[in-house]
Amino acid sequence: MAQFSRSLALLALGGTLLPFLVSCSSTKASQCQELMTAIARGSEAVNALDADRAQEMQSLAEQLDDTTTRLKKLPLNDPQLREFREQAIAVSQGFSEIFHETGKALELANQVRPTREGLKTLNDTQTRLKGAIASLENNTKTANRLVAEVNRYCGANLP
């Protein structure tokens, strides 16, 4: 579970970069700001996540589903920002799927009885969680790359 928590910390780090996104021209600036705001909403819940609770995983997944819906409805005229939005939607959906799966696995692990079947279930759950950690790490890298690209495009001057 410690590795999962570290992976979540990586995700949270990517989420903390979002408020630093700054833009340049007025139309581009307002569109950048709208996109960044929509993305940031999805990262807010991640920062407060208790990674050991199945209910929190499911709640976070639902919040990310809401973020995905907001991103899909975001009106953007700039073609590059529309591409960034599509990438952000894919990232948000990816995180949502990961947290739905993790929540289900934790819920299952919490219901296991000390039997031979229970041990098999725990082993299966551990395999699912390892897969979720790998997916989380990959999706976090994608999210961080996207943040950097949006920063670059929108003219952010970060140290």
TrEMBL record:
Annotated PROSITE patterns: PROKAR_LIPOPROTEIN (PS51257)
Highest taxon listed in the record's lineage: Bacteria
Stated name of the protein: Photosystem II protein PsbQ
